[in-house]
């Protein structure tokens, strides 16, 4: 089933230690090595928190560019900064307490005739940031190599 039909699957495989190789469902997309920071990993790649921040900033950037230009945005008109705010919950477990995304646009973007309207629309069309804001239900299961269910989240 394709993304247009509502699903896609990516594959992850542990390499060594906390290094995980991510293989995407797009043939032309390069694999991505993820890792954890010390003391667990060696920062050989971004960890999940960094990818979540990057995903939100990328989605917001693409959403604004699409609103402004549709299929052909000009090159080098936008940069973004994503700041992830880490907190500890009541059980002292590390959590993402918030994300701050700053989109930095050049004069060409600001001068675009659609800019005023797009400023009020683009956030609502970003799949990732809108989903994070609403809270994403996550179903987790653990199976053995034969596919037998060992654990399922509530």
Brief summary:
By secondary structure, the chain is of the alpha+beta class.
Explain this structure to me?
The structure is a single chain. With 154 residues, this protein is α+β, with helices and mostly antiparallel strands. It folds into two domains: 1-45; 47-136, 2-Layer Sandwich (GMP Synthetase, Chain A, domain 3). Helix content is 27%, strand content 27%. The chain has helices at residues 48-69, 107-110, 115-121, 127-134, and strands spanning 11-14, 20-23, 32-34, 78-88, 94-105, 141-143, 149-152. Strands 1-2-3 form a three-stranded antiparallel sheet, with no helix packed on it. A two-stranded antiparallel sheet has the order 4-5. A hairpin with a 5-residue loop joins strand 6 and strand 7. Helix 1 (48-69) crosses helix 4 (127-134). It is globular and about 55 Å long.
Number of domains: 2
Mean pLDDT: 94
Q: Shape, please?
A: globular
What is CATH's topology name of the largest domain? GMP Synthetase, Chain A, domain 3
Count up the helices: 4
Distance between the termini: 26 Å
**What CATH architecture of the largest domain would you give?**
2-Layer Sandwich
Topology, number of strands:
7
The helix-strand sequence is EEEHEEHHHEE
- Strand numbers in spatial order across the main sheet: 1-2-3
- Unreliably modeled segments: none
In CATH, what is the class of the largest domain?
A: Alpha Beta
**Approximately how much helix is present in the residues?**
25-40%
Structural class: alpha+beta
How many strands, what sense, and barrel or not for the largest sheet? 3 strands, antiparallel
Radius of gyration: 19 Å
As a percent range, the share of strand residues is 25-35%
CATH superfamily of the largest domain: K homology (KH) domain
